[in-house]
Amino acid sequence: MRFWKWALATTAISGIAVIGALVVWPIGQDVAPITLAGDVKKGGYLARASGCIACHTNFEGGGKPLAGGVKLDTPFGALYSANLTSDPELGIGGWTVEEFAKAVRQGISPEGEPYYPAFTYPFYANFSDQDIADLYAAFQTVKAVPEAAPANEMPFPFNQRWGLKVWRAAFLKQPATDPISGQDPEWNRGRELVGGATHCAACHTPRNLIGARKSADEHFAGNPSLPGGSKAPAIDYNTLRKRDWTVDSLAYALKTGIMPDGDTFGGSMNEVVQQGTRFLTNEDRRAMAVYLMDDHSGG
Amino acid sequence: MAKKILIPSVLIAFIGVAAMAHNGATGIVKERMDGMSAMGKAVKALTPIMRGAVEYDADKVRSAADVMIKHAGEQMISLFPEGTGGMPSSALPAVWDNWEEFSKISNELKAYAEGMKIAAGNGLAEDAVEQDDAMMGGSNDTMMGETSEDTMGGGTMGAETMITAEMFATMPVDTAFASVAQTCSACHQKFRAKEN
Q1: Most buried residue, A33, A84, A213, B117, by most Cβ within 10 Å?
Q2: Does residue A90 contact residue A166 with C-beta atoms inside 8 Å?
Q3: Measured between alpha carbons, how far is B82 from B93 in angstroms, rounded to an integer?
Q4: Are the C-beta atoms of A71 and A79 separated by less than 8 Å?
Q5: CB contact under 8 A, A273 and B185
Q6: Coil vs helix vs strand at A36
Q7: How far apart are CA A28 and CA A109, in angstroms?
Q8: Chain A interface disruption, residue of B143, B149, B177, B191, most A CBs within 10 A
Q9: A247-256 and A267-275 are packed helices; what angle lies between their axes, rounded to 10 degrees?
Q10: A93 Rama class: left (phi>0) / alpha (psi -120 to 50) / beta
Q11: Pairwise CA distance, residues B187 & B196, whole Å
């Protein structure tokens, strides 16, 4: 009897100690000062490509651009996208460029808290300092909206941010955006966009029970249960070819939403096109299509 | 004798059932599916024209527009009576939960298609073939999400602008076509179940 009491107490204490250690476990790397001048236009372009406007604008509820509040029903609870307007209190207007860089590339808030991976920061990890400076400059032009996004509705234990540190340690990987030698610049540009900014795999690669992408063996195999109940089809190159896509028709679909059979995208892909890829250059859409239609296994 | 007739009829009936089960739709659901397919075909026919991949043909544009005009608006709305969702229909319950919006989009589609018909004589925008407006011409306001138009219920004090076909009268035809396609997609996002 006494033994069990002791065992229980010891387990509890060591459990608390582990959690305590996790709570104070520092994550991420310091960001070296970024002094580059940002180009607002390039930043706006990258923001479109990255889906910032799509996810952080509540179109449904008539919300202001980038004021957040879009509900995402994940299997772990409901998340609301953050206010990214220049409001100094409720938006990100008070952030330094280095804090911004850490949030975008590493998924860590200025307070040092890890973000939920619903924010697709894992794809932005290779953004250059210049990309960050451009984005930062563009976000500073966004009209301040003094509205707080609703609080997340995450039940225990998913509301414990230290849990995300374990998740990061287990699953956070470098995005596949690095150029592959021997491939032409268009292909590599496609890789940079698809594996990075446009984060196709966020929806088109299935996730495991704790929300990590199964990139190793189910890359682009589709996701039958997206947050909110939608589905994402497989977009691996074999499937795309089997379904009669071509580089040309895919590039065009990313511009207009029109598929080869005359039907149009439904689901959240409509939003991806209307709020994102529609704004890209023909060259970039084509580069994405070239990469997607080609065998890029291992990358 | 009776058997001789019976067997083929049973067979035919079976094939009939099988064919129906394949698509599964009958009656009003089938009717609206056929309408959607007809519009899909029209979009498919228009796509190479709008991309400048084939020679521009105003009459083809007008006849494709007619297909959409015929199937959109009130016609489409009338084919979605309450209680006709669920298998085999792909229509989501959202259609009836947001009936006003559904009707609005349906009417917009008709207006855009009419606009496309009116604008058919205008031809394509000069840059339609290798268009690159977003990066160069687009203002940063648009890039960061600001729009001049009032999107989706933002304005409550009667600010809602009526979309009319005449608005497209002086525009290149591909502008109207883009609006048509956006309407299809917007409606499918909200009101159609995903298949795969």
Answers
A1: A84
A2: no
A3: 9
A4: yes
A5: yes
A6: coil
A7: 10
A8: B143
A9: 80
A10: alpha
A11: 18
Residue that the structure tokens 């995208």 belong to: A265
Q: What's the mean per-residue pLDDT of chain A? A: 93
- Apex CA B67: angle with CA A244 and CA B106, to 5°? 90
Q: Could you give phi then psi for residue A80, rounded to 5 degrees? A: -120, 135
ipTM of the complex: 0.79
Residues in chain A: 299
Q: 């609005």: which residue's tokens? A: B104
Tell which residue, B113, B124, B101, has the closest CA to residue B39: B113
Interface contact A44-B140, CB threshold 8 A = yes
CB contact under 8 A, A41 and B140: yes
CB A58 within 8 A of CB A69: yes
Encoded tokens for A229: 């109940």
Phi/psi for A3 (5° steps) reads: -60, -45
User: What long-range pairs does A215-224 form, CB within 8 A, spacing at least 24?
Assistant: A215/A173, A219/A297, A222/B196
pLDDT for position A12: 80
- Does an H or E element contain A71, and which? strand A71-74
Name the band, by pLDDT with cuts 50, 70 and 90, for residue B34: very high
Amino acid at A293: M
Alpha helices in A172-276 (DSSP H): 185-192, 201-204, 215-218, 237-242, 247-256, 267-275
What is the C-alpha to C-alpha distance for residues A161 and A53, in angstroms, rounded to an integer?
A: 25
